[in-house]
Every structure is written in structure tokens, then in C-alpha cells.
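Question (not urgent): is this output format expected?
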Amino acid sequence: MYKSLGLHRLAYRAQISSYVKAGLIDQAIKTFDEMTKSNCRVFSIDYNRFIGVLVSQSRYDLAEHYYYRMIPQGFSLNSFTYSRFISGLCKVKNFILIEKLLQDMYKLGYVPDNWAYNIYLNLLCCEKQIDLALEVVQTMVEKGREPDIVTYTILINGLCRAGRFDSAVKIWCDMVRKGFNPDEKACRALVLGLCHDGKVDLAYELTLGTLRGRIKFSKSIFNSLINGFCQAGRIDKAQAIKSFMSSNGCEPDLVTYNVLLNYCCDELLLEEAETLMRKMERSGVEPDVYSYNELLKGLCKANRLDKAYLMMVNKMEAKGLCDVVSYNTIIKALCKASHTKKAYKLFEQMGGKGIAPDVVTFTILIRAFLREGRSNIAKKLLDQMTGLGLLPDRVLYTTIVDHLCKTGEMWMARSVFCDMVEEGITPDVVSYNALITGLCRASRVSEAMHLYEDMHTRGPCPDEVTFKLIIGGLIREKKLSLACRVWDQMMEKGFTLDGDVSETLVNAIRSNDASCIKI
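Got this back:
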């Protein structure tokens, strides 16, 4: 009899296996259910294999169902199946079941493999549950499973994304002390994070300073450090890293040169920028549209508009390296220099060159014509823009609101502001301040206060300018008690009132014998 049942069990197993190989998972499930309801004795290995199949097929709900059916029978999964189950559940973010499986494993003396731990840790970091990830690593070590290079990389990347650079550095140092050589991803995460946080010296010391000779650094790491030192205004250090990069068989690429170009053009070191462009070409690195646009930006910033225009027409267009950013850069510079007519003429030439204007182009020109009081041309441009299917963005809406407020057209300004909200564009603090300025100038401080309260409830938070506008308007309308309340709110946010305004408010309170605050 026992032999007969054993044969039946083998037959069930064979049938389930054949269904799985044929991709007939539902038939396999049906056969497994028949097997468990038959007189055949089912073993732990049967549940292990079957749950493993369900996990591999992403049938996690069913895997959970059979897991809870298995446990009361005294069966358990083996370490491998537990690890694969946990890895699979990470895809669907089933944190509750993952934690249950981990605790069940620990009770059995099992520990997930590094693969499962790393997938779980990556999920926790992606979900910004950094503290829980650190706890999991601590438990991992306590259970005798040492972190590997992937574990360290995941933690460093997660900590840097969360802005917790001190903890990231601590993990990094622990990793290096244990003899691990960080990979590209870990290096990039740490360097980018520290440079973004202004800790470029530390980024250098932990990588090139400590690990020089131990690992081969990629161009991406060198470029990140060069960019970090350029951002810190330390071009000498950036140039030194570029030289070290070359001497170690890692030739500067387009990104390297563009980072240095960006610095030179921002600092108006235009001769150095042009020399760098020539050096690029001699080195076999062709400047791209970004390279030329950086130089164009520098020339415009230095008010060398004729040279900028000639470079765009004679060099950039000839090489096919002229885009809408190029035109926007010169149009903006012309408008800033009050050469609005030339800017408009350049705008008209764009279409003939096959370059379509974008929202930025129209915003620059509309703002310039509004500033000059030429609303008719601004309106024409706005109509042309919408006719091209381009919708105004927050910057353009704010520009129009600001102009309408300055010309006293407050009803229209409020209407445009409401249009912006209805179009799904959230006003920022600059947008609110533009309208609040207009309302206060028009002695409509009550309406300005409604906007101020709206900012508190919906966002964005008022800034220093907002508070000063509101308090100034309330003082002019002699609403001193309300002005004091706003002043209190301002100080709670860490902002201070200008000396002359605060003195005006204090004097007004004293003269009106008010007692809303203690001086």
C-alpha cells in the first residue's frame, strides 16, 4: 500500500513538472491541489518546489496562500526558496509578508542570501525607508551574513539620495577598511552627493586621495570631481585633476571640456574659453551644440553681442549646431540691452532657418515688449504662441500678471492668475508676490490678505518679500493689529523686517495707543 501511494506521489510530481515546463501553470495548480487532497503523503519538498514555481511565475498571492496552508502542517521552506520568495515580493512591495518571512526564517535558524537581502535593501532605499534599511543590515551582520560590494553600493546610493552624507561616508569608510574596492556606481553616488552638498574636498579625498592605485576611476568620476571644483570656484584644482586624468590613460572627453567651458564662460574668461575650444578640436574632441551655446552665453553676458551673433551665423549654423537655445540666448541679451527691435527681427528669422521658437522665446519677447509698454505686439506674440499649440508656463503667466498689476489693470490681473490655476499650473511665490504687490498698490489689502492666507493653506509658503508687502499694505491702511500678527508669523519663519518698516510700525502703534504687542 505504501509503495502504491509512493508511486502515486511520483506520478503527481511528474505531472506537475510537465505542466510547469509546458507553461500550463493553472493546470499545475489544479494537480497540486488534487495531490494534497489525495491519500498521498505530501512532503515539505513538494511545497518548496510548488511555491518556488509560483514565485518564478509572479503568482505571489497564490504563493502566500500555499505558504499559510503549509505552516500548520509543520512544513517550512528551505533557505533558497525563502530567499527567492522575498526577492519576488520586493517587486510588488509586500512589506508585511517580507517581514513575516524574515522572522520565520530567523526562527528556523535560516538567513536569506545576499541576493535577497540586497534586493530588499534596494527597495527600502528607493522607498526612502533608510533607517529600516540600516536596521536590516545590522540584523544581517548579526546573523552572520556579511555585506558585499552590492550591499554597500545600495546603502551609499540611498544615503546620498536622502542627503545623509555623514552616514554615507561612514559606510564608505567601513567598506574600504574591509578591503572592498568600490564599484563605479558607489563612487559616482558618493562623489555626486558630496559635490552637490559642497563637500568636494571630502569627495576627492575619499576617492582619488585614498584609493589612487587601487582602482581605475572612470571618466564619469573624474568629470564629477572637476565639476565639483569648478562649482566651488577652484579652477586650479579642476585643471590639476584633468592633467592627472590624462597622465593615467583616461583622456578628457566632451563632458570634461564642457564643464571647464561652463566655468570659463560664467566667469567671463572668454579668451580661455576660446583657447579651450581650439584645444578640444586639436585633441579630436568636436565641440557640440552645448559647447557653442556656453561660449555664446559668455559673449552675451560680456555684452559682446555682435561677436555672439557672428559666431552663431558663421560657425554654429554652418556646422548645424544652432538650436532654439542659441537663438533664445541672443534674443534675451538683445532685449536686456533694449534692442527689442533687433531681437524681434532675429525671432522672425528663426522659422526660415528651420528652428521653431519655444515658450521661452515667446516669454522673453513678451516680457520685453510689455516692459516697453507695447502691449499690442505682446498680445500678437501671445496669439502666435497659442496658435502654434504652445501653452503659457508659470513664468509667462507671472510676467503677464506682473505687467497688468503695474498698469493698474487689477481685474484682468486676477483673471489671468485664475486662468493659470485653472490650467493646472501651480503659482509659485513669485506669482503670488506679483499679484499681492498690485493689490497692495491699489489699496486692496483685504484681497491681498486672502491670497496670503491661501498661501498658508495651499502653498507655496510666503517668503520675506510676501511678508513685507503685506505688512506695508496693512500699515498704510492702519490695520495695525493685523500687521502685528503677520509680523509675528514672519519672525516665526526666521525672517526679519527692515529697520525703517519696523520703526514705522512701532511708531504707528504708539501713536494709536495700540497694545497688540510688547515692545
